[in-house]
Q: What sequence folds into this?
């Protein structure tokens, strides 16, 4: 890629807020593991930091810099690689509850008293669990491309989704098939996103390994065991919640976000057109502005 191409795709962020592309990799010790994270953005008084929890097999570099830098104009953004993920050490838990407890250990280690959460996919599972485990910690929730525990059709992915999501090697083609629709426009947006994930030149995160894949898949599978009684616990998540998903999400199924929004007492749902699981990187500016408006609302 030429220098011209890099500059053209580089998100415009004012120098005082920092950026996903330049923020240093930091680390904190929790319960025998070292968690790696990036922390940047506008430390505006009264604005809760936004902790971002990533998708299945994703590391820090998979966060779209256009999206997270846009949100960082208003508040601090913290991107976390949970236990055993990417450069973070330790063994990846095989259940969502323990993943959530590791996030709580991380938040406590940083001394944070109140946070907002953006949970994408598996990160959305963890975010729901966090809101239940520590309800006074979480101020607002953004639940992107995710599903409630016990929802239908997520216990066993389709053969096509499984083949692409769980392939030993993650390629551009597997990512496009999982995250973007089959339309020419969506795939073009997907290729642009893949280029953006390579813009950071130094101190990149480590790729996730197959042990991470297998442990996270076990957690996702257990979460997805059909059980409508699990939906009742969502009544306890009273925080304002923004539920967002693509209109053709083949991994989490769009109707499960409708179910999630219906069960959360204080939520609204937005469905993005012509998009699959990676809608947030197909519409990074639009989704970023929707997140900003939601988090900044009185």
A:
């Amino acid at each position: 890629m030429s220098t011209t191409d890099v500059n053209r795709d580089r998100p415009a962020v004012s120098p005082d807020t920092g950026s996903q592309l330049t923020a240093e990799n930091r680390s904190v010790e929790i319960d025998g593991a070292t968690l790696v994270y990036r922390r940047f953005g506008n430390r505006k008084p009264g604005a809760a930091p936004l902790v971002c929890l990533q998708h299945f097999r994703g590391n820090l570099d998979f966060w779209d810099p256009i999206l997270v830098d846009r949100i960082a104009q208003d508040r601090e953004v913290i991107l976390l690689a949970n236990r055993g993920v990417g450069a973070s050490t330790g063994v990846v838990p095989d259940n969502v509850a323990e993943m959530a407890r590791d996030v709580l250990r991380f938040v406590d280690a940083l001394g944070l008293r109140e946070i907002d959460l953006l949970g994408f996919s598996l990160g959305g599972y963890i975010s729901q669990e966090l809101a239940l485990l520590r309800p006074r910690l979480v101020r607002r929730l953004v639940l992107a491309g995710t599903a409630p525990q016990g929802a239908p059709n997520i216990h066993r992915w389709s053969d096509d989704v499984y083949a692409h999501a769980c392939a030993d090697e993650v390629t551009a083609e597997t990512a496009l098939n999982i995250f973007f629709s089959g339309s020419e426009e969506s795939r073009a947006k997907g290729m642009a996103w893949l280029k953006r994930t390579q813009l950071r030149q130094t101190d990149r995160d480590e790729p996730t390994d197959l042990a991470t894949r297998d442990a996270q898949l076990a957690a996702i599978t257990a979460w997805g065991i059909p059980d409508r009684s699990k939906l009742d616990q969502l009544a306890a998540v009273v925080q304002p919640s923004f539920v967002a998903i693509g209109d053709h999400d083949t991994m989490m199924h769009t109707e499960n976000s409708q179910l999630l929004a219906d069960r959360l007492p204080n939520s609204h749902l937005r469905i993005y057109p012509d998009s699959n699981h990676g809608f947030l990187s197909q519409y990074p500016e639009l989704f970023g502005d929707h997140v900003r408006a939601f988090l900044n609302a009185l």
Residues 3-296 form a domain with the Rossmann fold fold (CATH 3.40.50.1820). The mean pLDDT is 94. The beta strands are 26-30, 33-41, 50-53, 76-81, 115-120, 138-144, 241-246, 267-272.
